[in-house]
Amino acid sequence: MKEPLITEELIKEHGLTPDEYGRIVSILGRTPMFTELGIFSVMWSEHCSYKSSRLHLKKLPVDAPWVIQGPGENAGVIDIGDGLAAVFKMESHNHPSYIEPYEGAATGVGGILRDIFTMGARPVASLNSLRFGPLSDPYHKHLFGGVVSGIAGYGNCIGVPTVGGEIYCHPCYAGNILVNVFNVGIVKKDKIFYGKASGDGNLIIYAGSKTGKDGIHGVTMASEEFTDDAQQKKPNVQIGDPFTEKLLLEACLEAMDKGLIVGIQDMGGAGLTSSSSEMAGRAETGVELELSLVPLRAEGMIPYEIMLSESQERMLLVVERENKDALIDIFKKWDLDAVVIGKVGGDGFLRVNWHGKMAAEIPATKISTDAPIYDRPSKRPTNQDELNTLDLSKVPDITNSGNDALKKLLASPSIASKELVWQQYDHMVRTDTIVRPGSDAAVVRVKGTKKALAMSVDCNSRYCWLDPYLGAVHAVCEAARNVACSGALPLAVTDNLNFGNPEKPEVMWQFIGAIEGIKDACIALNTPVISGNVSLYNETKGDAIFPTPTIAIVGVLEDADRALTQWFKAAGDVVMLIGQTKEELGGSEYLSLCHGIERGLPPTIDPLKEKALHSVLIKLNAQGLLKSAHDCSEGGLAVTAAESAFGFLIGAEIDLGASSLRADALLFGESATRVLISATAENADIVEAAVVAAGLPIARIGKTGGDILRIKAKDMTLIEMPVSELKSIYDTSLERGLNQNEHI
Amino acid sequence: MFAIVVFPGSNCDHDCYHAVKHVIGRPARFLWHKETVIDKDIKCVVLPGGFSHGDYLRAGALARFSPIIKAVTDFAKDGGFVVGICNGFQILLESGLLPGAMLRNRALKFICKDVFVRAANVKKTPFTATYTEGRVIRLPIAHAEGNYYADAGTIDELKTHNQIIFNYCDKDGNISDEANPNGALLNIAGISNKQGNVLGMMPHPERASEEILGNSDGRALFQSIAQHIEGA
């Protein structure tokens, strides 16, 4: 490649506005060179600079006594006791996965794993949150298969279990799928590493795979809408090599353990550019690189390409001179390249040389501090009020049997068993998974302690579309409720904010509403946001996805032996419903699936009540008083009861008694802050008293046992089905949908 | 002393170490794949699961060229005990320590789940000596290439010398096609060599060695060999 001249056309091609270009000229005091233009273009892309979101992200709570590192580093860190810390983050790989699902998803996993072990932590568990269009569309079948195999291919090979996640299918994702991947690692509290290029004169070492031409401008692609030419962007997608990453992981952890590393950052999005400039920026030092020393796998690469390549499985390390040889020996042992490519400077400049000739010279901190920040206009969509109206009098209630509706809900890909997916993920490697995928939260023990980590990822984007604020509150509360249902105390959040084009005021309105919702819920639950990712421009030809602020929460279970699951454990236990059921059908899966209606308002929710619910669940479980706990969400009480029955094929007789509410709202309404629990007959009184004392409603609604799920209400038998028959629908629907041309 | 071999890409090495050292409480150490000598105090070598060298080629096809394999081969010839689990089993096949080969799973997908296997010829190897003949145990599998294949002559040999140790079965012990997760011939999940000192198995006993993991059916395998070594 030859270096072109800087023209207006070229500036535009780099996604820079005339105003942004003006800023570059004023920072440099001259016209940028080609490599410099490339550096600014990627660093000021939406993906790297958060220019549309930064102003609003500042509102999120980030502190708590247990937070060791909040947003701004490679990942967030919380104290989990016993001298240990949990390091976690979630990140999106939406755009690349739509174009090349296997590599897009695989490199998403690779990227998040590097963010975790860069901090010195050993990755111990992954989750993912996936959104596809309808699986009746052959391209989405292809995307589904590719994304799942990509996650499996990378995670299984590197030996980090994928322990849970969620999948939703909706036409709003037909042009933009979402692939959000989460990882958590564990590190000794006094052995956390940061992405800082400290110490004037220290060496900069490049380690890992060689640099190729793949993924150049990947972050720029992730900062634009798709048009008709999405498939033309395949060369922007990176290629993953999990084996090399496994070697890199072991080599880095070994070098860290021996105290040989001063600072470290992975070369992910925007590659060498972001790692070098961010490390210099954080440490307020400078970095000087000689690019001719970078190991290359393609011929004829120029500085611009080397700086912008997003080749995977690469790390940038800062090392003291006397430790250089020892460090390189470790990488040699693992058959990896590790070469000195530069040094830390003291004057704040990022200097990039090519065979001794200057290719870029930029004040490093200015790249981030002087990045544009936009207060983009926002506007409530004109049709929002209309969208929020729902006249239930026109929706026929269930008067006889809800069996068919229940069967339909259990077959919906958003609710149906995802076993066929997680069977492709090694979810047991490391022998820590004590609650496997399929329950509310996954639970992994922490070897060497009595503790376990519980984690869940969640977002109901239909709720967010109907009301971004309420939807976001629900996302936080439900993720936390899932964690609490396993007996663990939710401690902190990582978020992945997936939205459309922020230059549209309606999308900004959704974004700001969601941020407010996350903020309020996180404050109430005392779960600060310690890391995250923003993915905007999830639009194709002007159609945006539903706002999807995906929330992942990590909690600590003090006694791993007490991990609670959602499944009924024995016949004769008392079934109780905590929380109040209201006539809330707006935005429900039931209305969408059985009546084709997607409107109204999501259920009301009070995060303080939610907090009280979590506290009482955790307390009761710690005392060994609960046999099962399952949160009521999509599909309402009936689906919750059915799923509780599936684990050990234990049925239940439930009677909801007299009620002024519609029968379908009782069965399938999604009123928030509700949990279905079971307890032995002897313990039921104590449980009931504790819940009442916590200020929450609780009702004894039935008993476990038999092989039938029967739900009565208002003197009618609304549900009466053999558990095995329901389970068979639940277990096989996703596979049927993927294999046949059946609309699911 | 148990030794767990670490190939680049091994990822069940720490799990096996944990099962030996912390679950059954026996001494254990790691052996790097570039090592060439197996010390005298080592009585049992474990080839753990994982993706040695990435397994971009046939699983185990590159690991067999690791220096340690020569040492393991000599160790086995001298009667040392060797167990290969999952990728370890694949490596034993590739290096000729056990007969046969692995094909891709018949569904062409990676499968991670609990399966039932029936223990047969349990007295053939000290690894299974404490299981009762015909006992059905539950163990996890996690592989993409576990579809055991061998020619008819080899299968006959395996049968004649009682070398088939584990077969996939249903919970009642029926060895059926429905209970076969990957298409393996005769539902074979594990075999030994003629002498009975080398065992290869696709299921992961180390993942089923503790009550907290919901399953301890695999622990007896480690205990069994440990007791045998100590008795010897």
TrEMBL record, chain A:
The keyword Signal does not apply. Residues 200-353, 571-706 form the PurM-like C-terminal domain. It is found in: Cytoplasm. Keywords: ATP-binding, Cytoplasm, Ligase, Magnesium, Metal-binding, Nucleotide-binding, Purine biosynthesis. Mg(2+) 2 binds at D115, D266. The active site is at H47, H93. Part of the phosphoribosylformylglycinamidine synthase complex involved in the purines biosynthetic pathway. Catalyzes the ATP-dependent conversion of formylglycinamide ribonucleotide (FGAR) and glutamine to yield formylglycinamidine ribonucleotide (FGAM) and glutamate. The FGAM synthase complex is composed of three subunits. PurQ produces an ammonia molecule by converting glutamine to glutamate. PurL transfers the ammonia molecule to FGAR to form FGAM in an ATP-dependent manner. Belongs to the FGAMS family. This is Phosphoribosylformylglycinamidine synthase subunit PurL. It comes from Candidatus Magnetominusculus xianensis.
TrEMBL record, chain B:
InterPro entries: Class_I_gatase-like, PRibForGlyAmidine_synth_PurQ. One of its GO terms (molecular function) is phosphoribosylformylglycinamidine synthase activity. It holds the Pfam family GATase_5. It catalyses: N(2)-formyl-N(1)-(5-phospho-beta-D-ribosyl)glycinamide + L-glutamine + ATP + H2O = 2-formamido-N(1)-(5-O-phospho-beta-D-ribosyl)acetamidine + L-glutamate + ADP + phosphate + H(+); L-glutamine + H2O = L-glutamate + NH4(+). Keywords: ATP-binding, Cytoplasm, Glutamine amidotransferase, Hydrolase, Ligase, Nucleotide-binding, Purine biosynthesis. Its EC number is 6.3.5.3, 3.5.1.2. It is found in: Cytoplasm. The active site is at C86, H204, E206. Pathway: Purine metabolism; IMP biosynthesis via de novo pathway; 5-amino-1-(5-phospho-D-ribosyl)imidazole from N(2)-formyl-N(1)-(5-phospho-D-ribosyl)glycinamide: step 1/2. PROSITE patterns: GATASE_TYPE_1 (PS51273). Part of the phosphoribosylformylglycinamidine synthase complex involved in the purines biosynthetic pathway. Catalyzes the ATP-dependent conversion of formylglycinamide ribonucleotide (FGAR) and glutamine to yield formylglycinamidine ribonucleotide (FGAM) and glutamate. The FGAM synthase complex is composed of three subunits. PurQ produces an ammonia molecule by converting glutamine to glutamate. PurL transfers the ammonia molecule to FGAR to form FGAM in an ATP-dependent manner. Part of the FGAM synthase complex composed of 1 PurL, 1 PurQ and 2 PurS subunits. This is Phosphoribosylformylglycinamidine synthase subunit PurQ. The lineage of its organism: Bacteria, Pseudomonadati, Nitrospirota, Nitrospiria, Nitrospirales. The gene is purQ.
